[in-house]
Design brief:
- The complex is a heterodimer of chains A (about 110) and B (about 110).
- By secondary structure, chain A is mainly β.
- Chain A is built from no helices and eleven strands.
- In chain A, strands 2, 4, 5, 6, 9, 10 and 11 form a seven-stranded mixed β-sheet that branches. A four-stranded antiparallel β-sheet of chain A has the order 1-3-8-7, with no helix packed on it.
- Chain A is globular.
- Chain A starts with a strand and ends with a strand.
- Chain B is mostly beta strands.
- In chain B, about 0% of the residues lie in helices and about 55% in strands.
- Chain B has no helices and eleven strands.
- Chain B has strands at about 5, 10-15, 20-25, 30-40, 45-50, 55-60, 60-65, 70-75, 85-90, 100-105, 105-110.
- In chain B, the strands form two sheets. In chain B, strands 2, 4, 5, 9, 10 and 11 form a six-stranded mixed β-sheet that branches. In chain B, strands 1-3-8-7-6 form a five-stranded antiparallel β-sheet, with no helix packed on it.
- Chain B is globular and about 40 Å long.
- Chain B starts with a strand and ends with a strand.
- In chain B, about 40% of the residues are buried.
- The chains are: A mainly beta (about 110), B mainly beta (about 110).
- The interface between A and B is medium-sized, with 26 and 27 residues.
């Protein structure tokens, strides 16, 4: 399978704990995006990388969120001190260039209890 | 005003009929337009992309773009029960070349046998 891969698929955590998600993009794709989707809504943009550089962050991304893409390959999204409002599906997507089509991974569903 | 607007539905059509899904966007500089299909609990799957005014056909799907009216639509011919899903309209805004997508909230399509 050469698509976008995300791990874990599901995560249940207690409020206040830290969580980290991983995304492996399609191998030749230089752009990687993180989105968050809550029930009944479309995905909302969080941040994106071109190669290893993080070029844009949404205002939705509070100081508790941090993302990295070392060496321009896989990416991690960390949420510190999780809150119940962080419960959502976290989606990763990758594309080759900005105009070309973005493909999504299966997502990580986070539940904060 | 939301940047990308869709009627949340549900849109119900009988099997074999044409389903018409509509989307409007606010940024006149938008360059790229996409339709994603999302089954319940799954991640978005890209089904169509369109970049210039007019129609683009792919199998049973036709995407239509009218930049003057800031309107993009998706037609599904010979609708099947397996087409029942939420359809997300996504726009790559022209204000930057990030490639980030702004999504509508999605239209739920129900195809009844």
């Amino acid at each position: 399978d050469t698509g976008v891969s995300q791990d874990p698929r599901h995560k249940i955590t207690k409020r206040g704990q830290n969580v980290t998600f991983r995304c492996d993009p399609i191998s030749e794709h230089n752009r990687l995006y993180w989105y968050r989707q809550t029930l009944g809504q479309g995905p909302e943009f969080l941040t994106y990388f071109q190669n290893e550089a993080q070029l844009e962050k949404s205002r939705l991304l509070s100081d508790r969120f941090s993302a990295e893409r070392p060496k321009g390959s896989f990416s991690t999204l960390e949420i510190q001190r999780t809150e119940q409002g962080d419960s959502a599906m976290y989606l990763c997507a990758s594309s080759l260039g900005h105009r070309l089509r973005a493909f999504f991974g299966q997502g990580t569903r986070l539940t904060v209890v | 005003q939301k940047e990308v607007e869709q009627n949340s539905g549900p849109l119900s059509v009988p099997e074999g009929a044409i389903a018409s899904l509509n989307c409007t966007y606010s940024d006149r500089g938008s360059q790229s337009f996409f339709w994603y299909r999302q089954y319940s609990g799954k991640s978005p799957e890209l089904i169509m992309s369109i970049y210039s005014n007019g129609d683009k056909e792919d199998g049973r799907f036709t995407a239509q773009l009218n930049k003057a009216s800031q309107y993009v639509s998706l037609l599904i011919r010979d609708s099947q029960p397996s087409d029942s899903a939420t359809y997300l309209c996504a726009v790559n805004t022209g204000s930057s070349n990030t490639g980030k997508l702004i999504f509508g909230q999605g239209t739920t399509l129900q195809v009844k046998p």
